[in-house]
Amino acid sequence: METPFPPFEPNGPDDSARGPRLREIPLRLVFPNLITILAICAGLTGIRLAFENRYELAVSMVLLAAFLDGIDGRVARLMKATSKFGAQMDSLADIVNFGVAPALVVYVFALDQARSLGWIAALIYAIAAGLRLARFNVMAERENKASWQSEYFVGVPAPAGAMLVLLPVYLGFLGLVTDRTFAYLSSIYTVAIAFLLISRLPVWSGKSEGNRLRRDLVLPMMLGVVLYVALLMSYTWEVMVFTVAAYLVSLPFGARRWRRKYGTLTIEEPGVGDDDIGRHI
Hints:
- Helix 1 runs parallel beside helix 3 (84-109).
- The chain is an all-alpha fold.
- The model is unreliable at 270-281 (pLDDT under 50).
- Strands 1-2 form a two-stranded antiparallel ribbon.
- Helix content is 67%, strand content 2%.
């Protein structure tokens, strides 16, 4: 029978057996993780609102989740609060907000009328988003990164995929009839976006440090951003449809730019795909 009293230690307590001591954590290390948690909450709330047939709020929550998920890493870097824990939280938020939430919202709104085919399409998109994020994490962990990684993505990034896959919902908000034919077409479109996510298509990221904007174009660009945001606030779904169309149209131009620079249509750089997957499983 175990005694409820601690054992006698003649040489004093042994601190090495107590595990790590608790210490205070600076608030700046917690703040980016709070943003990530809020992003997860927004994505999951969007799913709930979709099942309650409150679709506009559902899409708004998913887009809000994507926005919060996009800024948490930047906030962490600005505050010098990056950590392995935060990176793991961000990966969890990515799969929820860019994979699961958009797939379920578009399924409840349109794909369910295609029955099993619609559900299969939603599953394919969610899995493709997970694979896309896994490939991104593997590439980010490489010690020797290729020079083109600062300028191009391999395939459509997951945040853009979440925006693109919701196009059937935007069209439904604009009055397009969401019948069974619409559901079948939306299922095909969802699968197409899924393949864009996992493809080796070079997608220009706009993050290259060599990009510079002429001084005379700074003010027009700022005015253009203000105009875009104002239109987005007033004509939300029309602007979202235009944004999706503009993004899809831009993909061939990015691939053309890659081909002129590197001579291939797709990114076939060693270590991007099969070898990395094999090493990290």
